[in-house]
Design brief:
It contains four helices and ten strands; from the N terminus they run βββαβαβββββαβα. It has helices at 34-47, 64-82, 133-145, 159-178; strands at residues 3-9, 13-20, 27-30, 50-57, 91-98, 101-108, 114-118, 125-126, 129-130, 148-155. The protein has 195 residues and is an alpha+beta fold.
Length: 195
């Protein structure tokens, strides 16, 4: 089983996270931010990953440290659970509709952390959640997981739909990319022999 548990404690956050890449989408999340809980729950469900997250953060300031650090820890867990990346499909992409929003995600589990971010989110907040934190989350995830991640908004005007579409599309693309290809199960998917 490809499972990782990461604990990270700083002066700003105390996070415990377990990720199972070969799960069923089961999720238990308590980040202190209702909107982020919603996004992580649907992320796990659509990726088919089992995910448990608890975070105690300095939310009296705002959600920035919690969101960024959860992205870091999820990225670390993804990298650890993938191990040597032998047999993975490596690439994943999807064009995902979420009502009027249309989001394209393409990614490469490349060993090189990079985010190319193309969301145009119209509102500064959803409830008490600062929407600029969506980019911070995906930056942290891409860097720490060492994946090349492209997210593009092709249509959409509802802030909630755009963000939800992004989390769902990244989940689906990761589900594709992390799957074991039975024909390549004993090989690293790179001519370099390492990712």
């Amino acid at each position: 089983m490809r499972i990782a548990t990461i604990n990270r404690k700083t002066r700003e956050t105390d996070i415990s996270l377990t990720l199972n890449l070969d799960g069923t989408g089961a999720c238990q999340v308590n980040t202190g931010c209702g909107f982020l809980d919603h996004m992580l729950t649907l992320f796990a469900h659509h990726a088919g990953f089992d995910l448990t997250v608890t975070c105690v953060g300095d939310t009296q300031v705002d959600y920035h440290h919690s969101v960024e650090d959860i992205g870091i820890v999820l990225g670390d867990a993804l990298k650890e659970a993938l191990g040597d990346r032998k047999g993975i499909t490596r690439y994943g992409s999807i064009l995902l509709p979420m009502d009027e929003a249309l989001i394209m995600t393409a990614l490469d589990i490349s060993g090189r952390g990079h985010l190319s971010y193309g969301l145009e989110i119209p509102a500064a907040r959803v409830g008490d959640f600062d929407t600029e934190l969506v980019q911070e989350f995906f930056i942290s995830l891409a860097r720490r997981a060492e994946i090349t991640l492209h997210i593009r908004q092709l249509a959409g005007f509802n802030t909630h739909h755009i963000i939800e579409g992004a989390f769902k599309s990244v989940a689906h693309a990761l589900a594709i990319a992390t799957k074991i290809n039975p024909e390549m199960a004993d090989r690293i998917p790179s001519t370099k022999g390492v990712l």
